[in-house]
Amino acid sequence: MTTHAETEIFSQPEIWEQTMAFYPSVAHLLPAAGERVAFVGCGTSWFMSMAMASLRESLGLGESDAFTANEFPLNRKYDRIVAISRSGTTTEVVDLLAKITGTPTVIITAVAGSPVTVNADETILIDFADEESVLQTRYATAVLTLLRTHFGQDLSSLPDQCREILNAPLDPQLLDCEQISFLGTGWTVGLAHEAALKTRESSQFWAEAYPAMDYRHGPISIAQPGRAVWIFGEPPVGLEDNIHALGALVVTSKMDPIVHLVLAQRVAVAISQGRGLDTDNPRGLARSIVLN
Asked: Could you give the 3-state DSSP secondary structure of residue 145?
């Protein structure tokens, strides 16, 4: 039986097209060039925050930081805070927005009228990207698509690229691995963390994530036959040779990193199904973390 996660993963090309069409109606709510901005979230939303803060600053659009919501430094001054919460009920995000005074806040969420919308100054509602599965897949990439479009990137070709990767067979050698280390550089470090989270939470699988240049400073010691290293973006010079010398499988791609993330989502779900697990309801997790 097809899981909700599979359905939602395969819907992403259409969701991205819908997001790009939706963007002009909310562009005025997102950070202007030159603003000092903090992106905040928890779990997947934190990793999307990491990616977008790094990308925005690298494009020269303004100083940008990212924090998990419960570690936000309230004494810092920002021109705008962008919070991300699919459910709109994540306790740490709700509590943080209630504490912020004097700084404009905008929440990107999938649920209208949720607690975060009460405490934020502005709300961007992408309910068309909401999900049934506990696993976040299309909501996360919709947020990426929205913000990358706002940053001036032309993503019009990505839905078709995504359709290609969704129709491609998965590598059996990769599915048989006992461990995967995901690596990234710049804004794709956040994607590496997200890919590792997906494989861990969906299937209790041993997955790690690091900045690619830091991988040689210790983590490379676990590379060996039967394990894989998945690199988002352009691999640093010499790194592939270092990994091959230890016998691990290396996964790279020339495709856009967001499309490569979709492939990682597919791999995570396939591993989960191979282990006979409930992909839509990972052990110990819920759609939203609400603290007492």
From this structure: helix
To the nearest 10°, report the CA torsion of 184, 82, 292, 190.
Answer: 0
pLDDT in tens, 176-208: 999 999 999 999 999 999 999 999 999 999 999
Contact 107, 124 (CB under 8 A): yes
Both structure tokens of 262: 């979709």
Residue among 256, 202, 191, 203 at smallest CA distance from 230: 191
State pLDDT tens for residues 25-84.
999 999 999 999 999 999 999 999 999 999 999 999 999 999 999 999 999 999 999 999
Average pLDDT, the chain: 95
Query: Which residues are within 8 A (CB) of 257 and not within 5 positions of it... i.e. 6 or more apart?
Result: 184, 187, 188, 191, 232, 233
Residue with tokens 């395969």: 10
In Å, what is the CA distance from 153 to each residue of 156, 158, 173, 235, 256? 9, 11, 34, 22, 12
Query: Which CATH architecture fits 168-274?
Result: 3-Layer(aba) Sandwich (3.40)
Within the chain, which residue ranges are assigned CATH 3.40.50.10490? 4-150, 168-274
**Any residues with CB less than 8 A from the CB of 59 and at least 6 apart, and which?**
151, 152
Q: Is-contact 219 208, C-beta < 8 A?
A: yes
HEC profile for 12-54?
Answer: HHHHHHHHHHHHHHCHHHCCCCCCCEEEEECCHHHHHHHHHHH
pLDDT for the residue numbered 290: 63
Give just the sign of the alpha carbon dihedral 97, 134, 195, 220. positive
The pLDDT, as a whole number, for residue 286 is 64
* CA pair distance 245, 197, nearest whole angstrom: 27
The C-alpha atoms of residue 126 and residue 103 are separated, in whole angstroms, by 23
Asked: is 4-150 a CATH 3.40.50.150 domain? The reply is no
